[in-house]
Amino acid sequence: MQTHVLIDLRSEDLSKAAIEQVLASVVVATEAGRLLATDVRLFLSEAHREALADALDDEWQVSSPTNVIEAANHAMLGAAIAGAQWFVSVGVAIPDEECFLALESVLATDPYFGFAFPRFARVGEDGCLKLSENLGDPGLNVMPMPDLASRPDYYLVADHLKPAMLASLQVVRDFEALSGGYETLASALRDWIARSRRVGFRCVVSNRSIARVEAANAKLELEGTPADEKKLKETFPEIEALEAQWSADGLHEWEALRGRACSPNTSIRNTLLIDLSDLGAVYNGTSEAVIALLSGLSGIHGDWKVDLLVAPNVADFHGLDRIARNFRPVWPEPDTRYTAVFRPIQPWSLRQIERLHGLGLFVFVMMFDTILGDSSLRPDLRLDTVWRTLARVADGLFYISRFTRDRFRTRFPVADSVEEKVTLLSTNPADYCAEPRRGKGNFIFLVGNDLPHKWIQPTIRDLADVFPREKFKTLGYSDPTIRQLEGVDSGHASASAVTELYRDARLIIYPSLYEGFGFPVVRGLSFGRTVIARKSALLEEVAAHYRGPGRLLGYDTRSELVESVARCLKGMDVEEMPLGKLSPESSSPRSQVEFAADVLSAIERRVADPNSSLWARRQQIFEVSSAYAAHPVG
């Protein structure tokens, strides 16, 4: 099909060399028969016309119009009369033969595709520029060109204007002229696009068309004057809504995230955000698991660039500058995006999952247990909905034990496309106790808190009644009515104070009905203590992987617990649970480093294939959810 060309090079900011490159591309196109020299119209400043006289073809229509919109209308009318499509370029955009062919191919896809735009790349760079330099990943401007081949042939987009476009013959014939009354050619073109869109003609971006821009600072966002903007929005009130839709379009994030994951530059590709936004300035099982992960990762992160989303006061409380000194803390929002985002704390809301989704191409989450959902102590959180969604949209789910995995699976069907991995926490005594020396041993230590499933209250009352002369200490529970009980605040007790409790205890009792791992069991054993814990599949799992000092006793009933305590206090024989069945004597027990290495290697395997990301599935779910929230039925 015949093509007419209009290239507006009037800007004084354009260098002579840059304009010469554009002119050279036009020469190549005419010599190849793609264009007729007589169908080429150039707008140049007077200064550039004189400086470039030798580079101008005598058959080109070259002018320095005082009314650029009127001059453009002459060119558009010529295309309409000739039955030609119309290529318009504002500034330095250099299309080649393949670019023209791909633009034509896209327009031919649908009779209501009215305007086709190429992608852009800077001269001398290998990568493709983002769809919008102001949207998507703020830390990434250039995406790897090979990844563009995996994108669809085109994107259907809202009203669009870039430095180069090909208008179909149909819209050229139907409209024939740009509207007057605007101060810039860019605004007149936007008006034309809006008028065409109102009757059904759409804008598309061709992912197979690449136009080069010479200047490093060349703008790809064409703007009019404030007066033009006002006129456009008065004439087409819907433009503001369309602009908002364009800015919010997930395409910008998806493109940039894909580009990051496919980048040949490891400092861009191997980027990981660890979401610690829910980590508190307290010591508990959650913080212990997080610290174990960070400690392990610190020595093995390799060429991964790791950021921690963590509040400064929390980072100070846990000494993260010492534990994870190679990782960068960011707060309250990251200044970039990541190939992978990992939340080592189970999510409590859909908003938290959506936030992770907005920060990385891959989303990984670690589940500790399902007790809060099962107990319904916080029905307002709607955890069944949150975790059911997680089971469909997470790229990877980590479980701190097989026991936790089994609980999660029986409650929430996990999609086949979701990677699952059991990454048991450390069972190595060295990670819990540096020197297991004997303590004073003058009290019985109960570990738990006032949550119902910890079962501390009924347990301490039973034991206090049966053993009135024994002293008891609890971590995380107090009861002033029990005179022989001393309660210690679990959340704010120092690490050294907690260590002394484990070291000095005569017995350690862990009566919890429901756990995901059970740090107190492994810690108590690591200090060489006798630990009495409720029997469960989890206790057997942890015992099978633990090999070290201490002895472990299991019980089912209250009477069994009382009997075990009595026999231990009297030095009588007790039935011990076997330890280390799955921990070969020839190797060290599972460590924090192995735990972290399992996590990182699973993440690496998944992100090695950017196509395996479930980003599109998550985006669809959150877009639908947002639409219903904005426009509820009824």
CATH architecture of the largest domain: Alpha-Beta Complex
Q: How is the main sheet built?
A: 9 strands, mixed
**Unreliable segments of 5+ consecutive residues:** none
Tertiary shape: elongated
**Helix/sheet category:** alpha/beta
Helical stretch tally: 25
Determine the strand fraction and express it as a percent band: 15-25%
CATH topology description of the largest domain: Spore Coat Polysaccharide Biosynthesis Protein SpsA, Chain A
Cα end-to-end separation: 51 Å
Which value, in Å, is the CA radius of gyration? 34 Å
Could you characterize the architecture of this molecule?
This protein has 25 helices and 24 strands. 43% of the residues are buried. The strands form 4 sheets. Strands 1, 2, 3, 4, 5, 6, 9, 10 and 11 form a 9-stranded mixed β-sheet that branches. The chain has a 7-stranded parallel β-sheet with strand order 14-13-12-15-16-17-18, with helices on both faces. Strands 21-20-19-22-23-24 form a 6-stranded parallel β-sheet, with helices on both faces. It is of the alpha/beta class and 634 residues long. The model has no long low-confidence stretch (mean pLDDT 91). Strand 1 (3-9), helix 1 and strand 2 form a beta-alpha-beta unit. The chain has 3 domains: 3-261, Spore Coat Polysaccharide Biosynthesis Protein SpsA, Chain A, CATH 3.90.550; 270-426 and 599-630, Rossmann fold (3-Layer(aba) Sandwich), CATH 3.40.50; 430-569, Glycogen Phosphorylase B (Rossmann fold).
